Amino acid sequence: MTLVAAGSVALAAGLDRLIAEPPAAVHPVAWLGRGLAPLDRNWTHPRLVGLGVALAVPLAAAAAVAAGVALAARVDPLAGGVAAGLVCFVCTSRRMLLDEARAVVAASGGDLPAARERLGALAGRDATHLSAGEVRSAAVESAAENLADGLVAPLAGFALLAPLSLPLAAAAAAWVKAVNTLDSTFGYRSHPMGWAPARLDDLVMWAPARASAALLAVAGGRPGALRAARPLARRPASPNAGWPMATLAVLLGVRLEKPGTYRLDGGGSGGDDPLPTRADADRGVAVVARAGWLAFGVGVAVSAAWATTGPGAWPVPGVLPPC
């Protein structure tokens, strides 16, 4: 059953296409978010608490997932593959985010107040006074950034550990998703305990953010866009988020901007690039959609290649064989 891991990734991709996301009431990531809520309080030593949370919560999530997949695989290898595919599905997100971005872009052309309100599901910024172009910019930026956070990072963890064992692959995806959820919950300046979760997320997302930029460049038909995006990628405060956003700005030839925070002039005009039109934004979301399918395709290919030629293809003392 050496190709079960590749099948698990394919299952996750199919479920993403068919149903987008599990309902919030039964979504494990939503459960995690609600479970973290009691920790949002004033602590005597907030950084120490944050460090403990950053270490313990992702590890606990990974252990629970590994145990569940291992139990399913013990019953039947195919059941283990399905369980791992379900984990990969709930730990990744593509269609729902793209649908939200498309809805915001569509509303920006005729109902700006509705577009501003809906933007809250995508971008953590005050949209009260944003123009239509700024709303579209935020939607496009969020789509690009979430490609890395919501899809490439957990998918990479799964595919890279697939040669060791299916439970470990699923655990890696869950660990990455838990790290990202902690950052989304606490990784703000207003949360003193968020320092450790934010720094851990920066470390974990370093490679996925740059890989996502490469996927966007390929999906947009301009691999050379990465070179033009490099200086722009340093403008946001995040060491990672700027990479996919800057690459998409270059591909679209527009300005992506968070007013008062950063400005990514992708057209190379030196400061006179326009904000995205509705057509520009639709094209940007389409590029992110193609990049997402590329990510799933690479995940399937890597899982299959590693399973047949990588270290998991041979018995390794002390390491679980591939399911």
TrEMBL record:
Keywords: Cell membrane, Cobalamin biosynthesis, Membrane, Transmembrane, Transmembrane helix
Family: Belongs to the CobD/CbiB family.
GO cellular component, one term: plasma membrane
Biological process according to GO: cobalamin biosynthetic process
Annotated compartments: Cell membrane
Biological role: Converts cobyric acid to cobinamide by the addition of aminopropanol on the F carboxylic group.
Keyword Transmembrane helix carried by entry: yes
One function term, GO molecular function aspect: threonine-phosphate decarboxylase activity
Signal peptide: none
InterPro entries from the UniProt entry: Cobalamin_biosynth_CobD/CbiB (IPR004485)
Chief place where the protein resides: membrane
Record-given protein name: Probable cobalamin biosynthesis protein CobD
Membrane topology: Multi-pass membrane protein
Coiled coil: none
Phylogenetic classification of the source organism: Archaea, Methanobacteriati, Methanobacteriota, Stenosarchaea group, Halobacteria
Residue spans crossing the bilayer: 48-71, 155-176
Pathway noted in the entry: Cofactor biosynthesis; adenosylcobalamin biosynthesis
Gene: cobD
